[in-house]
Give the backbone structure.
Amino acid sequence: MISGVSMMNALVRAPGRWSRRAASVAWLALALLAMPAAAQSVYPTPEAAADAFGEALATSDPVALAKVLGPDHRQIVPGGVGQDDVYRFLAAWSRKHEVLADGERRAWLSVGDSGWTMPVPIVRVAQGWRFDPAAGKAEIARRAIGRNELNAIDTLRELHAAQIRYRDGVGQGRYADRLVSRPGALDGLYWPELPGYPAQAYGPDALAMGPEVPVADAYYGYRYKVLPARGGDGYWILAWPARYGHTGIGSFVIDARGELREADLGPATARRAATLQGTDVSFGTWNNITPQPIGAK
């Protein structure tokens, strides 16, 4: 964590903004790396390594891909990928690709015109240059955490806007006490669409946000809850990683004024989040986040 925005966030900040769908497509393209094991090739330059990867991918040659990426490539992204996703990746490759030096012993392959870089670095070894799948696995995990944290911040801003809609509508001046309304009530931001009911303040995504949602189903790796203020004239909404260190690191909170704060609650995040009250996040170890418009990266 760093002040303002976490260090994980910085890993995914690149010129141009990947949407949630586009980002997942990029990682799906990398699933092509799950090919049979083979001795890894070493190349005279990082550019030669990048070109070998591009050619192997374009020709759908599993043996060549395994030679480019080495026997540990299965650790990167297991599973398969649709051919349409391969075409999208290759289209980005054809528009632009280049090798970006990162010191004297490491380089990154940049693909497309959005600033995205392949998470598997090209490293210098005694005989030349090769891809480093082990480092790529760690980099993918870091980037996934960064995307989840950015999504959590955006989601809190969306929930803040939903609270305003609720207050000005069914809340009649009060804010919602919870994300999902209790059966037969309109005390949350979401309620089922039923004849005669008003429009929801927030959509069904709220069903995947609660503390009881399993880790695998948590909304982009985060859980949320409303911390009501006394009298219903204020609130805090808390977001914390469903699995600390895997789906996220930072915890975030937004208040009725739209002010965002962040904190690293450590390995005990889940237990601490369950007991937090509104006054607990209004001072102390929680740091302000610089305001940005929704979607700014």
About this structure: Helices lie at 7-11, 20-30, 46-58, 62-69, 83-95, 133-168, 269-275.
